[in-house]
């Protein structure tokens, strides 16, 4: 493909040094396009590892690569297209302080292929500080967008407000969940209360609503934070299970008014978990482990194991940040959410489904990613050829044809 470029542009491409942030759906297509276009000096950064669910759209990866870092396998696959290219892979987070302004200044161009706003904001600010042009991109289902950001030439990624993430009433999350998403939000809040940066507004402990006091027939639970309670009990998995799925539920049941028109929850005792579940039936319906429903017993086991691992990580690193791509963090949320769902007689979800809902993921479409990756390279060529005035924000969508007259 590089042979079709004009000589001057071909030289500019060959002499450039570019940074690709993210080697997932868009990133895989982008790295392949860059190598085929003649880019020979590429740095790549990505923290994720390959999962089975990636294989249907991230075509640089194969089944034998599952569990390996995406960025390392992407480098190996890209080098097959051009063995002489110099490709450096960093299995790391772009948020690492090592990747600072001075690091960014070495690049001719930075290309984002990320899937979260925090990292996008971070790269945007570093590129502005370093004076390096950024090609930003993203996709969601059949929708996608590519835009070029350059200090003093265009608006930046944060210049326009982004849509707010959908939120749910706190009383619904704490007291009366009725949908799987309510249990998942509760589990994410629980993670932050126990291991992350606690937010009093997102406490998971039951709380009486206005007007509920009259119907409250029991003694109020001590109002200490979830973190304080866990620390005072040395993060005992059994005690945490008892508090969250038995004591707190019994406390909720004492609020008479809550259950006049709702089905009441059923406290769950660790020593009396149900013997049967949906897991056995689901195993024949789903071949991938993440798509099988976990039994209540397995949820309880995973929940306790994750608490011990996260407790140790908390003591070593300080407050943790929940990441859908961190196995232990994701397992904790999946197990905690399904246990709460079981208590409230809400349908359980597979780890795969919970990850999609917890990470606000819209299923990725391989063809959309391929189109977006191609557009990134086209805009990059304009920048390297000194034609920034020709750069555009390009949006991709699936539009219905006009109705016939």
The assigned structural class equals: alpha/beta
Query: Which band does the percent of strand residues land in?
Result: 5-15%
Rg, rounded, reads 25 Å
Mean pLDDT: 87
Strand order of the largest sheet: 3-2-1-4-5-6-7
Low-confidence stretches: 209-222
In N-to-C order, the SSE pattern is HEHEHEHEHEEHHHHHHHHHE
Helicity, in percent?
40-55%
- The overall strand count is 7
Largest sheet: 7 strands, mixed
Q: How far is the N terminus from the C terminus?
A: 43 Å
Mass-distribution shape:
elongated
Enumerate how many helices there are, as a single number: 14
What are the defining features of this structure?
405 residues, seven-stranded mixed β-sheet, 7 strands, 9% strand
Secondary-structure map:
Blueprint: H1 7-14, E1 18-21, H2 25-37, E2 41-46, H3 70-81, E3 86-91, H4 101-104, E4 109-112, H5 117-130, E5 134-140, E6 143-149, H6 170-174, H7 180-195, H8 226-232, H9 237-253, H10 279-283, H11 296-317, H12 327-343, H13 351-358, H14 366-384, E7 394-396
Parallel strand pairs: 1-2, 1-4, 2-3, 4-5
Antiparallel strand pairs: 5-6, 6-7
Helix pairs in contact: 2-3, 2-14, 7-12, 11-12, 12-13
């Amino acid at each position: 493909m590089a042979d079709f470029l004009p000589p001057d542009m071909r030289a500019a491409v060959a002499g450039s040094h570019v940074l690709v942030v993210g080697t997932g759906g868009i990133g895989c297509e982008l790295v392949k396009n860059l190598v085929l276009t003649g880019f020979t000096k590429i740095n790549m950064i990505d923290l994720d590892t390959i999962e089975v669910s990636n294989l249907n759209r991230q075509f640089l990866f194969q089944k034998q690569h599952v569990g390996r870092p995406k960025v390392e396998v992407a480098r190996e696959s890209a080098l097959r297209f051009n063995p002489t290219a110099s490709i450096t892979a960093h299995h790391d987070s772009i948020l690492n302080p090592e990747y600072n302004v001075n690091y960014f200044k070495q690049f001719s161009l930075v290309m984002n292929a990320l899937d979260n706003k925090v990292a996008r904001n971070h790269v945007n600010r570093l590129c502005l500080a370093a004076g390096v042009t950024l090609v930003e991109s993203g996709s969601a289902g059949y929708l996608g967008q590519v835009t070029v950001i350059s200090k003093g030439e265009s608006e930046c990624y944060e210049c326009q407000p982004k849509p707010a993430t959908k939120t749910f009433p706190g009383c619904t999350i704490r007291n009366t969940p009725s949908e799987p998403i309510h249990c998942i939000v509760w589990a994410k809040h629980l993670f932050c209360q126990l291991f992350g940066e606690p937010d009093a507004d997102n406490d998971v402990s039951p709380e009486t609503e206005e007007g509920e006091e009259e119907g409250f027939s029991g003694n109020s639970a001590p109002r200490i934070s979830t973190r304080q309670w866990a620390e005072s009990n040395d993060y005992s998995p059994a005690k945490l299970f008892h508090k969250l799925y038995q004591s707190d539920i019994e406390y909720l049941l004492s609020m008479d008014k809550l259950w006049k028109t709702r089905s009441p929850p059923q406290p769950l005792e660790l020593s009396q978990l149900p013997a049967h579940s949906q897991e056995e039936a689901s195993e024949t319906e789903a071949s991938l482990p993440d798509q099988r429903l976990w039994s209540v017993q397995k949820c309880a086991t995973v929940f306790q194991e994750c608490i011990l691992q996260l407790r140790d990580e908390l003591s070593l690193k300080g407050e943790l940040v929940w990441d859908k791509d961190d196995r232990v963090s994701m397992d904790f949320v999946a197990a905690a959410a399904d246990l709460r769902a079981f208590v409230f007689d809400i349908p359980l979800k597979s780890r795969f489904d919970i990850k999609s809902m917890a990470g606000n993921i819209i299923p990725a479409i391989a063809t959309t990613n391929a189109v977006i990756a191609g557009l990134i390279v086209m805009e990059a060529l304009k920048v390297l050829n000194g034609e920034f005035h020709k750069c555009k924000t390009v949006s991709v969508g699936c539009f219905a044809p006009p109705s016939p007259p």
